[in-house]
Please model this.
Amino acid sequence: MSKMDGLRAMREARYERAAELAAKGGARARSVPRPAPAAEPPAPATEPEAQESPRCGHRNMSGRTCTREQGHSARSHRYS
Model:
């Protein structure tokens, strides 16, 4: 059996398993439970020096966000 035949067989087996689960009406069970949400969000800073200006929020393809101020006039974004 060639490498491609093995890959094709694995893909077909995975497809059949997914079709069986869909027919049963259930999805895969998660092996790790989700963490419970925090009870209270942290209190916002009251000092004007501690507050930051709102950020641009633009995201690049890798998920990084722009750190420039919201509505910046620069043509490029700064990601971090």
Observations:
- Helices lie at 3-24.
